[in-house]
Amino acid sequence: GRRGEEGRSLQKSRSKWVLMHANSAHKHALAEVLADPATLARVADIKAAAEVAALATFLTLMASQPDRVTYGYKHVVAALEQGAIDKMLLSDNLFRARTIARRKQYVGLVEAAKEAGAVVHIFSSLHVSGEQLALLGGIAAVLRFPLA
């Protein structure tokens, strides 16, 4: 039944759980835990691990099935318009563009990708994976189906 499904999805997410100590069970204790540098480092590691895995998938496909990936703003937009994006990879630098119009362009792109059912990964430009993504123009995508 419903409870069994919930239990299975909880078990699947176990690797993402972070066990931390709090002085109480009140809301303010959550702020205390989240302010702890050790907690932030562990949560950042989990986020970075997802980004590293997404980039690894992209690079593997680029080598083996290049028609299943795309990169660069125009190519990614074209793939999005065809409903082809499974995973979108963006550098956080893009959201710090000089012009507000450019920043809004990327925010709109992320929203459109999410609405189309794509998983969006925002990479830190300070992380090695983000540096690798920057070499591809800061934006790339793994496609649901091959595009010429």
TrEMBL record:
Cofactor(s) listed: a divalent metal cation
Pfam families assigned to the protein according to its UniProt record, in alphabetical order: eRF1_3 (PF03465)
Domain eRF1: 49-147
GO molecular function terms noted in the UniProt entry: metal ion binding
Location relative to the cell: Cytoplasm
InterPro entries in the cross-refs: eFR1_2_sf (IPR042226), eRF1_3 (IPR005142), Ribosomal_eL30-like_sf (IPR029064), TF_pelota (IPR004405)
Coiled coil: none
Example GO BP: nonfunctional rRNA decay
Keywords associated with the record: Cytoplasm, Metal-binding
Name listed for the protein in its UniProt record: eRF1 domain-containing protein
Family assignment from sequence similarity: Belongs to the eukaryotic release factor 1 family. Pelota subfamily.
First-listed, main subcellular location of the protein, grouped into a coarse class: cytoplasm
Lineage top rank: taxon: Eukaryota
GO CC annotation: cytoplasm
Presence of the UniProt keyword Cell membrane in the record: no
